[in-house]
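Notes continue from the previous slide.

Worked example: a multi-chain complex. Inputs as given:
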Amino acid sequence: MDRSIILCTLVMSLGFFGMATSKNIIKSIICLNVTQTAIILFLLHLFHNSDSDIPMMPFLKERFTDPLPQALMITTIVIGSAVTSLALLMSIKVFHYYGTLNWSELFSKDD
Amino acid sequence: MLTLMLLTILVPFLGAVIIYFFKNRTLNRSIFFIQGIETGLVIYLIRRFLIYGPYHFVIGGWQQQIGIELGIDRLTVLFMLLTLILWWASIFYMWPQRHSDVKHLFFMLVLEGMFMGFLQSRDLFNMFLFIEVITMISTILITYQKNGTSVKAGIYYLLFNNLGMLIFLLGVILVYIATGTLNMYQLDSLMSSVKGQSIMQLAYVFFVTAMGVKAAFFPVYNWLPTAHAAAPSHISALLSGLLVKSGIYGFMRITDMFGYEMFNTYFLWVGIITSIGGVCFAMVQKDIKLILGYHTISQVGLIFTALSVPDYLAQEAGLIHLLNHGIFKGLLFIGAGITARIYGTRSVDKIRGVLKKAPIISIGLIIGSLAITGFPLFNGYAGKHLIMESFKEQHLVYWVLTFVNLGTMISFIKLSAIHFGESTMRSSPVVSKFIKISVLVLSLLCITSFPFLRVSSINQWTLSSLAYIPHTIMVDIIKYFLMMEIGYGVYIGIIRKDPKLIKAMRSFNLSFENSNLMLMFFIFTMIVFGTQLIL
């Protein structure tokens, strides 16, 4: 198997592992981003080909890569950035209300 | 026709922008106008569907493979009707309190447009995008009360659901690698040639997991009760009636497309465990909205149990119960919300005498309770009876479902205590006319068994207003009262004494890390189950 695919899978598992173990909200958000980046790299790598050109108008080489994965992934990046900014904003609010960003401390506190 | 389909997505969106831009109190009333246009559009689309059958178009005349496709079929039509009804009800509910709150109106309308888009999209990636946007907007609406609890619930909901959707994205990528297309119609025709590949099976596992997170199946349920309890009541009604169902909707579409039958036993048990777990936690709660939230989990489990059986009757039963559940759960949440607002508390022990203080709300709540416990002639009965009927041969499942029904009754007996007794409040509350209208309309729909699908003739459905009446109705009524007696006994004997076990169960809460761990566990068990069958 390709070495990069294994690398992507490892990074993805690292992200999932981080989601399942991190005790801090900021760490969880970072792990979510790591997972997402790994997924994006996974698809982009699979359709990458150094022999072919980018799908843009003057074509210098004979073949060009499949443009659809790139279009999909740029949309995913946009969505991901929106989610990250919303999550960070809410973590500020959480800190403002409770004075902590620790998941277990947060849920043990009553209001 | 394509323009009209696009307009169902864009009209609420444009309306939202106009309302937000002008920030004018009189202009805010146009939300009813926008909602009216939306209703007209949907009714026109449904009429065309009834005459010509299902149809679909690609936006901009591109090829199917790269274009964005929108389609209308029976499932979409039914969900669109449910969407419209619940949105009307929640707009009426929120109007007296928030009619000058421009931001709230903006998010409500955008959410409606996005949900319509989700229902019509026939493309896996667009489905992913719409669900992501729906998740984000509903997070904002959950945290709308701007207090600590709601922000806490909101961030839990956002991060956990996003992890689920990343798993969905992984599935989308695997499908693209295996087939080179994401269009559902193309995938449908391609499926027979790629069905055997293990990459497709892995993609299916990922899709089902992601949809399981949205629909709150048992190991990954924990975001739901906290989010429902923290949200404003009309948002809880929307979440519980519709947004939770988006998971079931996606599951039905994807299972339809893939057509794998090997996971059916697994799904059956996931559904059963979900319904038992939900009902057990619901019985011990004391917060009125938490009780309803846990009941959503149990009812979704019931629906999922029915959908896991590859049999026409069971599938229809699941669909009927899904639609009816949307209606009566919306009614219950709206009723509970207004009760909690009148009394200033959500504890079942402290609220007393609703029947005297706010008779219409109380009657609405009673109708909702009768519907959810499956009293004959109310709409919950049709789905429940048909689901039980389809499991008549499997005795174990039948008895488990009877137990779930008993548990539902016990917790609604507990809830019904709020209607009677003497209230400690002196002033008589004023319930706005708008709220009364929304409660009345929803209770009317509960009695008349909203869109009942005729089971006898395949591919036909009707907006028949008569409730479902089988010939065993007398037996069912006797059974209902018998179970009510047993439930009352259990409630007096065990639940009301509040032993230690029940206290422990009430304070049980799955932490965020453990929820994620459970998500991994859910994927892992499904993969193990799948490979075991292949080997």
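Summary box: The longest strand of chain B covers residues 55-58. Chain B touches chain A through 34 residues (CB under 8 Å).
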